[in-house]
Design goal:
Helix content: 25-40%
Radius of gyration: 24 Å
Length: about 325
């Protein structure tokens, strides 16, 4: 199931939280990346139907989920700027809620309930025919069966996160939204959660999770949506995004049968801005990713040099994020 945002903005008075965002999110795992306060949670809540856009359109599948008034921006006065567009607004769509599971960042659990009671009550709210059985399946999926009869007040933060995910999955939704889902989890819990989300995404569900932790998104997501200061800064595979950033050099580590000869050949090439001979090979800075990749193979062949490794060293999500935030 595909989520579409078209020119979506959301503001609170004169504070713009999300500014003219257009994105498409399809089946699989998508990471919503950005610093704290970037607007990730607001986007999540609009997709989940908790907030209407102040402007723009949000659709899920073939039908509308949310729409906002065609106003000029946060300066326009009146309650419509922060609420539903009109009485015919479709952002409160109960049928759609059955297809969405949401795990909010903040704790939204009743601590006096046991884990089983909490997930079962969610199943009952969804009017499932066998709420107890559905709750048991969801709890087992999150490896929480041993703690299901304990009160949530006794849970660690990581356990509370997992029981929230169980409640979000109890009705078997096609879309799962998770806001900073790994907060408080220990390494084992984190790996288990990543494996579960990867499995759900491979089954064709649409999984969207937000994070400001670069390693989480890099480890799990095939696609990222980078949000900076309420705007969509980049969209797609993070490596492809990095390669499109031609305004700053790319850095490669190159190892060959004759690093000195290859390095001297690379110096002066139009795409190469710097070459350094190190103890482990060459470090090459280039302003054109594609041109360098084409040139180095030809130059090595012409010089009779065998290439052993050509490795981009700044393609991590951290370098992408740092560049986008700085610009």
């Amino acid at each position: 199931m595909t989520i579409e945002l078209r020119n979506v903005s959301r503001w609170y008075g004169n504070v713009v939280a999300v500014n003219d965002v257009t994105m498409s999110i399809g089946p699989g795992v998508t990471g919503l990346l950005g610093p704290n306060g970037a607007g990730k949670s607001t986007i999540m809540h609009m997709i989940a139907g908790f907030l209407p856009p102040s402007r723009g359109e949000l659709t899920i599948g073939s039908g509308p989920a949310s729409s906002g008034p065609a106003s000029s921006g946060p300066a326009s006065s009146g309650p419509a700027s922060s609420g539903p567009a009109s009485s015919s607004s479709t952002w409160r769509n109960p049928a759609l809620y059955r297809q969405i599971g949401l795990v909010p960042e903040r704790d939204s659990v009743y601590a006096f309930l046991t884990g089983d009671q909490f997930v079962t009550s969610t199943a009952k709210l969804h009017q499932l025919p066998e709420p107890g059985a559905a709750a048991a399946r969801a709890i087992a999926m999150l490896d929480m069966a041993d703690a299901a009869d304990r009160k949530i007040a006794t849970y660690s933060k990581g356990m509370r996160q997992r029981i929230k995910v169980a409640a979000a999955l109890v009705h078997d939704p096609e879309i799962l939204l998770l806001d900073e889902p790994f907060n408080g989890m220990d390494p084992r819990q984190r790996l288990h959660m990543m494996d579960l989300l990867d499995k759900l995404g491979s089954e064709g569900r649409t999984i969207v999770f937000s994070s400001h932790i670069l390693e989480e998104v890099e480890r799990l997501s095939g696609t990222i949506q980078v949000v900076v200061a309420g705007r969509l800064a980049a969209s797609g595979d993070f490596r492809a995004i990095r390669r499109l950033m031609t305004s700053r050099p790319h850095v490669f580590t190159v190892r060959s049968s004759d690093d000195r000869l290859l390095g001297s050949t690379l110096i002066g090439r139009p795409a190469v801005t710097a070459v350094e001979l190190t103890g482990t090979g060459l470090q090459v800075r280039t302003s054109d990713y594609g041109a360098f990749c084409r040139d180095i193979a030809v130059l090595a062949r012409d010089q009779g040099v065998r290439l052993r490794e050509v490795l981009p060293t700044d393609e991590s999500l951290e370098s992408v994020f740092a560049y986008l935030v700085a610009n």
